[in-house]
Amino acid sequence: MNTITGVIDMDHKASVRERVWSELRKVAVPDSRFHFDFGEFIADFEGGDAAVARLVDHRYYQQASFVFITPDNCLDRLRLKALQDGKTILMTTYSIKRGFFLLDPSKIDPELYLYASTLDGMERVAQHVALSDIAKMPTVEYMVTGTGAINHAGVRFGKGHGFFDAEWGMLYQLGRISTATPSAAVVHDCQVLDETLTPEVFDTVADVIFTPTRTIEVDAPHKPTCGIIWDRMDAHMYDTIPPLQELKAMGL
Fold first, then answer.
1. CA separation for the pair 40, 43 (Å, rounded)
2. What is the pTM of this model?
3. What is d(CA 101, CA 119) in angstroms, rounded to the nearest whole number?
């Protein structure tokens, strides 16, 4: 680590990932497609029920009726709980490749809530929505994500693809969220880092971190206001994420 700037160099990033993923493998639930390849998915883990219970008991969740929840494995149970609690959910597909979906509990048979909370079920039960549809919706009151790792200051250290930052950027440019919109990360305790991390201008820092044993509140987290920075957008992401193409076509 560069101790002057607090920025982690590429070699150190690799060593941090190796250390975290080695510990995570001991408690993670393997994915049906990606096994334990944590570079391809955000894993569920032992104690995930307790971490989500902490989130559900927190004021941010209690006060929100319209929430964005990422399609991470550790958040299936949160999507189910939110539907049961009558909250409307906005979410994306894996890697955002098929865009955004809306899960409105008033329009889904309660017997299908469990199915709807999964990625396969969501695409069959929920409503696909374009950015033009989202622009007409109420503001999103809470953003929830999993992540590969995160430090005590709420700076995420994920798979490296930047999907949550892209989701934040799109919703920000649509005016559906603001710097006052809280965001949360759900992780295992072994994913919480002591390292100093300096966020990029487009990085979304969590307001609160929920683990099976702790609720970590973050003071004055960085919230990006830059939206999508097109000249720094990864070409592969742009080519494979239709909402990014729609956003650019909207002139935003």
1. 9
2. 0.92
3. 10
